[in-house]
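Worked example 3 (structure in, sequence out).
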C-alpha cells in the first residue's frame, strides 16, 4: 500500500463521496484545536495523484502529503486523531523520508533541462563584429575587440571564426572573449574568459551538468576526448566538463554517446581529482608526454599543432586502472 492509501484507510467509516472527488465525514480535528466537534461532515479528504490532502471546514485544520516530501507534523497528528497506531505513523514517516531521498538521488543523476539564456548585453559574434570593423575602419575599432581576435589567433591558435565567439563593449566584459554554450542549436549559457590577467578568469552563466561542445560529437567518431576547459575542447573538437570535476549528470551524457571516453586532465593539482573521477566512471585517461611547460590540451595544440597533440593524446590513452594510477604518480 502506498502512503496515501494507508492514510486513506484510517478515515472514519461513516463518510460519503462527493462528485468533485472529496470524501466527506465528521472532522476529527476540531476538539484538538479548541473548536466544538464537527457534526455536519465538514471534514474532507481528497486524493491528488499519489498524494492526499485533508481540509477541515469547521476549524480550518489542513494537512497533506505528496510523495517526495516528508510526512508533516500536521499529517502525523491527523493520523493519530484518526486512530492510527504510533508504530504505523512512525513506519510511514520513515517510508516518506526514504521516498524523498530516492527522488533526490534520482534527480542528482538525471540529465538536466537546458533552457535558453541570454548572452551579456550588447554581445555580437566576431563574424558580426568583423563586418562592423570593415564598415567603420580599424582606426575606429575598440582596441579590446582587436585584442580578442589576436588573443584567439596568436595565444590560443584558435580560428576566430571556427566557433561563434562573441564580444561586447559592456563594462566588465570588454577584455573577455565570450564562448556561448549550445544545446540543440540554442544558446543555453556562456563563459566569458579574460584575455589578460583579469580576475576572475571566467565569468560564467550555466546550468550545472552542462557538457560543452557535446552537440559537435557526430556519429562517426570512435571516441570522445574530455577536457576541463572550453578552449581545450575547441582545440581538438572534444568536449569540456567546465572544471576539474566530472559530475554524474555529465557522465550520463558522455555515456549516452556510446563510445570510448578519453579524459585528458589538466596537469595541475585539481587534475588528480579528474583522474580519480575518470577511473570511477571506467573511462580511459590520457596523460601524454607533453613538452615542457604544457599544462593542458590547448597549450599542446599551440606548441605542437592539432594533429601531433591528438596523436599524443590517443596513443597515451590508458584504460587499465593500475596503469592509470602508476602514470598519475609520475605525471603530476
Ligand atoms: Zn476541524
Amino acid at each position: 500500500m502506498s502512503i496515501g492509501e494507508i492514510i486513506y484507510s484510517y478515515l472514519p467509516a461513516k463518510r460519503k463521496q462527493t462528485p468533485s472527488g472529496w470524501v466527506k465525514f465528521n472532522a476529527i480535528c476540531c476538539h484538538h484545536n479548541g473548536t466544538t466537534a464537527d457534526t455536519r461532515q465538514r471534514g474532507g479528504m481528497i486524493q491528488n495523484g499519489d498524494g492526499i490532502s485533508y481540509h477541515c471546514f469547521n476549524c480550518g485544520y489542513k494537512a497533506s502529503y505528496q510523495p517526495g516530501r516528508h510526512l508533516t507534523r500536521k499529517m502525523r497528528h491527523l493520523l493519530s486523531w484518526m486512530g492510527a497506531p504510533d508504530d504505523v505513523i512512525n513506519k510511514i514517516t520513515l517510508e516518506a523520508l526514504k521516498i524523498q531521498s530516492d527522488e533526490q538521488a534520482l534527480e542528482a543523476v538525471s540529465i538536466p533541462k537546458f533552457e535558453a539564456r541570454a548572452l551579456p548585453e550588447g554581445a555580437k559574434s566576431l563574424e558580426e563584429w568583423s563586418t562592423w570593423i570593415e564598415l567603420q575602419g580599424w582606426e575606429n575599432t575598440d582596441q579590446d575587440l582587436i585584442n580578442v581576435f589576436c588573443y584567439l589567433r596568436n595565444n590560443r591558435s584558435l580560428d576566430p571564426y571556427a566557433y561563434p565567439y562573441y564580444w561586447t563593449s559592456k563594462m566588465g566584459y570588454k577584455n573577455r572573449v565570450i564562448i556561448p554554450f549550445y544545446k540543440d542549436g540554442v544558446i543555453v549559457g556562456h563563459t566569458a574568459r579574460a584575455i589578460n590577467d583579469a580576475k576572475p578568469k571566467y565569468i560564467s552563466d550555466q546550468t550545472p551538468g552542462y557538457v560543452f561542445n557535446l552537440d559537435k560529437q557526430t556519429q562517426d567518431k570512435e571516441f570522445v576526448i574530455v577536457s576541463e576547459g572550453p578552449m581545450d575542447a575547441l582545440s581538438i573538437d572534444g568536449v569540456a566538463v567546465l572544471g576539474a570535476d566530472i559530475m554524474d549528470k555529465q557522465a550520463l551524457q558522455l555515456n549516452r554517446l556510446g563510445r570510448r571516453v578519453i579524459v585528458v586532465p589538466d596537469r595541475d593539482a585539481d587534475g588528480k581529482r579528474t583522474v580519480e573521477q575518470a577511473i570511477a566512471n571506467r573511462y580511459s585517461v590520457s596523460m601524454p608526454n607533453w613538452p615542457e611547460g604544457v599544462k593542458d590540451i590547448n597549450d599542446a595544440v599551440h606548441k605542437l599543432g592539432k594533429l601531433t597533440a591528438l596523436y599524443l593524446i590517443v596513443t597515451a590513452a590508458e584504460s587499465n586502472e593500475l596503469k592509470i594510477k602508476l602514470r598519475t604518480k609520475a605525471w603530476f
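Notes: Residues 27, 29-30, 38, 56, 58-59, 61 surround zinc ion (CB under 6 Å). The radius of gyration is 29 Å.
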